[in-house]
Amino acid sequence: MGNTSSMLTQYDIEEVQEHCNNTFSQQEIASLYQRFCQLDRNSGGFISADEFLSVPEFAVNPLSQRLFRMVDGLNFKEFVAFLSAFSSRATLQHKVEFIFKVYDFDGNGKVAFSDLLDVLRDLTGQFISEQQRELVLTHVLEEAGYKKDSLLVLSDFMKILGNTGLKMEVEVPVD
Amino acid sequence: MVISQRNPLSSRTSKMNKLTTSSSELDLDRPNIEDYLPTDSIPQPHAKLRLRDLLDISPTLTEAAGAIVDDSFTRCFKSNPPEPWNWNIYLFPLWCLGVVVRYGILFPGRVLILTIGWIIFLSCYIPVHVLLKGHDKLRKRLERALVELICSFFVASWTGVVKYHGPRPCARPKQVFVANHTSMIDFIVLEQMTAFAVIMQKHPGWVGLLQSTILESVGCIWFNRSEAKDREIVARKLREHVEGTDNNPLLIFPEGTCVNNNYTVMFKKGAFELGATVCPIAIKYNKIFVDAFWNSRKQSFTTHLLQLMTSWAVVCDVWYLEPQNMKPGETAIEFAERVRGIISARAGLKMVPWDGYLKYSRPSPKHRESKQKSFAESVLRRLEEK
Predict the structure, then answer these.
(1) Burial status of residue B67 (CB atoms within 10 A of its CB: 0-12, 13-18, 19 or more)
(2) What is the pLDDT of residues A1-10, one digit of tens each?
(3) Is the confidence at residue B9, as pLDDT, over 50?
(4) In terms of CB atoms within 10 Å, which end of chain A has fewer, N or C?
(5) Does residue B292 contact residue B314 with C-beta atoms inside 8 Å?
(6) pLDDT per residue over B251-291, tens digit each?
(7) CA of B383 vs chain A CAs: smallest distance (Å)
(8) What is the pLDDT, as a whole number, of residue B31?
(9) Following DSSP, what letter does each residue of B62-129 receive, concatenated?
(10) Do A57 and B358 touch (CB under 8 A)?
(11) Residue B157 to residues B67, B150, B161, B292, B300: CA-CA distances in angstroms?
(12) Burial (CB count within 10 angstroms: exposed 0-12, middle 13-18, buried 19+), residue A88
């Protein structure tokens, strides 16, 4: 896919579809490409920080910094793969994996107490004191059978989030 | 459950009726954007807080992903490139012929018309301006007529087909005209019918020169978007102008920026708190002939004008709508939104809940903080539950 052309060929679409495990239909991929080109204003082939933050609804999101780090510098194929967790065809496993990746900032496959604290801090800002945050987290962790210094892995996340109705879907507008 | 894209038109109206202006806001010109941003629509259950509830960040992630995939703000400023129709063997030569006609015949003809227009204008305007210094009333009348003339020449130079509907505006004190904004040519299209005084951003280059010389004579007000103190000065000037009896009717574009003529962004309340009658004007361009949206980030005004002069025509409708007064108990923001609704309905535009100035700056951290606050409160509340 040349970064100057704004037309996708059938081959391109199929390649992207395969890469995201068929979680998006071809029409949705074409729509996402239009959106990608629209956001990538300087046609650099990826969306920069400035371009992401120029979407007000994204900029006001408490987790925008974390998400941005995950999506920074991605080309279109990887962009679609990133969004595939939000497709209605994505499996629960896939969605939980995505959430795990948001927590696992350094990507070492383990989520520590500090990682949990960081995300909670992003979500609550200055409206809960740091002490209170730690107390809340320790309390719910112990209640669920973990200790403050436990390291959570993906299977733990699957266990905790797995059997609840996890709703994480976004509809891709198709003209 | 599929969380589909939020319909910007859905029950925002119910939220709008409960708007209050926050007096602690330093940005007096900006309505409370928190009221327009979607609050967490997932109902916070009142059950005891569990680990699962803290780990499940899916609502926030979904909102972020939704914004990445589509957002109402970017939609407003998308300029639609013309659909290429010249893709086959007989259409292509026709298109080439069209290009030849447009660039070779129409464009020079238009440049000629414009030049003649400028010559006539300047040869009348300069004497009038200089010689009639003492006779202010007469000079003003003549200058008004001349400005209307040069605007007509401009419109002719794009083969403008403008249809005006509704009663012609008349100059009365205590009234203000507001219109939706697509390009700087909105001003020219309206000015050829009535010499308005307008409030504009000061531009550089030849436009700025025109602004400071000729437009001064119809009584224009300048502002600078980036200067905060400017706002009070401008508000004062607006009020003085509206109350004066001899001034030209004032035209304001409350969106504050150019939008692509499919949507309207939020109106700034400045025009609606002058204690004057507001006369709405709706402008809609016919996109078949040319997309009149001036994407100021993509092209300069000169390029935009040249693009218009090498198109077939600029076709638009202008509706002068019924004057509106502030209803008792209505705030300036509610009044602005009501007028925006009237204009959008007439011109077939969708209303979106965004401040046009977000094009130039980031939303303030207040919005993120309100989300954080509501989540924090729910966590603490549920912690107490047994």
Answers:
(1) buried
(2) 333 345 788 9
(3) no
(4) C
(5) yes
(6) 999 988 888 888 888 888 888 888 889 999 999 998 887 77
(7) 8
(8) 39
(9) HHHHHHHH--HHHHHT---PPPP---STTHHHHHHHHHHIIIIIIHHHHHHHHHHHHHHHHHHHHHHH
(10) no
(11) 42, 11, 11, 14, 18
(12) middle
Half-sphere exposure of A146 (CA within 13 A, CB side): 23
Residues 8-47 of A with CB under 8 A from B: 32, 35, 38-39
Q: Say whether pTM exceeds 0.90.
A: no
Q: Name the residue among B283, B266, B253, B241 with its Cα closest to residue B355.
A: B266
CA atoms of B181 and B185, how far apart (whole Å): 9
Give yes or no for a contact between B276 and B175, defined as CB atoms under 8 angstroms apart: yes
CA dist A100 and A166 (Å) reads 13
Residues A124, B372: C-beta atoms closer than 8 Å: yes
Yes or no, beta carbons of A99 and B358 under 8 Å apart: no
Report, as an integer, the average pLDDT of B336-356: 85
3-state secondary structure A127-153: HCCHHHHHHHHHHHHHHCCCCCCCCEC
Of A67, A140, A170, the CB nearest to B3: A170
Q: How far apart are CA A125 and CA B221, in angstroms?
A: 43
Q: What would the two tokens of residue B117 be?
A: 């227009």
Do A143 and B57 make contact, defined as CB atoms within 8 angstroms?
A: no
Enter the tokens of residue B90: 């007989």
Inter-chain residue contact B62 with A168, CB threshold 8 Å: yes
- Reported confidence tier of residue B115, pLDDT bands at 50, 70, 90: very high
pLDDT at A39 over 90: no
Structure token digits, residue A75? 């080309």
**Nearest Cβ partner for A61 among B60, B362, B377:** B60
Judging contacts by C-beta atoms under 8 Å, the chain B residues touching residue A127 are 369, 372-373, 376-377
Q: Which residue has the tokens 């008004």?
A: B144
Substitution target from B44, B52, B68, B257 for chain A, most A beta carbons within 10 A: B68
Alpha-carbon separation of residue B126 from A19, B113, B146 (angstroms): 69, 20, 11
